[in-house]
């Protein structure tokens, strides 16, 4: 009887936790990414790409069978991408120990002030936390027009949104 009561209490607690769980998203490194262009670029040179792959996207989601799957989108929310450059992002397929339904990356895409789906078809899962768990993000600045580049510093902010 006591053993049954303990198991029932644990199940009640687990169900309570699941009902109150929220879908969560986090980055392994919340520090700014610095992408520096060195001098030596010139007009007419082949298009140059500057990359950073230090960020990992982690998430925890709970999806009921009757609910639609979850997606994660990205968008530029503050700042301006300098003239002559295009900011792109790519989420690498999931890496880690999870056996649950992690999402499918949408491929390399341009980051704009309109939300774009970065990862879709996410079911109930836990990707882990920190680096080397989840989806590695590869940001790249593609130089489209050398003649429009100006020296200086530009700060932009991107936002990740998890939706169902």
Assigned CATH class: Mainly Beta
Q: What is the CA-atom radius of gyration, in angstroms?
A: 20 Å
Mean pLDDT: 78
Structural class by sheet pairing and helices: mainly beta
Order of helices and strands: HEEEEEEEEEE
What is the third-level CATH name, the topology? Immunoglobulin-like
SS element count, helices: 1
Number of domains: 1
The overall strand count is: 10
User: How would a textbook summarize the main sheet?
Assistant: 6 strands, antiparallel
Strand content: 35-45%
Helix content: 10-25%
How many angstroms separate the termini?
42 Å
Uncertain residue ranges? 1-20
Indicate the overall shape.
elongated
The CATH architecture can be given as Sandwich
What does this 3D model show about the protein?
With 164 residues, this protein is mainly beta. The protein contains one helix and ten strands; from the N terminus they run αββββββββββ. It has a single domain, classed as Immunoglobulin-like. Helix content is 12%, strand content 38%.
Summarize the structure.
The protein is mainly beta. It is built from one helix and ten strands; from the N terminus they run H-E-E-E-E-E-E-E-E-E-E. Strands 1, 2, 4, 6, 8 and 9 form a six-stranded antiparallel β-sheet that branches. The chain has a four-stranded antiparallel β-sheet with strand order 5-7-3-10, with no helix packed on it.
């Amino acid at each position: 009887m006591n053993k049954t009561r303990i198991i029932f209490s644990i199940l009640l607690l687990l169900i309570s936790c699941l009902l109150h769980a929220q879908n969560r998203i986090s980055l392994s490194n919340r520090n700014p990414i610095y992408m520096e262009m060195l001098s030596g670029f010139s007009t007419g040179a082949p298009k140059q790409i500057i990359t950073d792959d230090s960020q990992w996207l982690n998430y925890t989601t709970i999806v009921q069978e009757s609910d639609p799957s979850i997606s994660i989108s990205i968008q530029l929310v503050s700042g301006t991408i300098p003239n002559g450059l295009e900011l792109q992002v790519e989420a690498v397929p999931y890496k880690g120990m999870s056996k649950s339904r992690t999402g499918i990356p949408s491929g390399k895409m341009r980051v704009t002030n309109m939300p774009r789906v970065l990862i879709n078809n996410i079911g109930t899962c836990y990707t882990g936390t920190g680096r080397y768990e989840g989806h590695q993000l590869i940001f790249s600045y593609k130089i489209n027009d050398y003649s429009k580049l100006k020296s200086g510093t530009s700060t932009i902010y991107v936002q990740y949104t998890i939706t169902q």
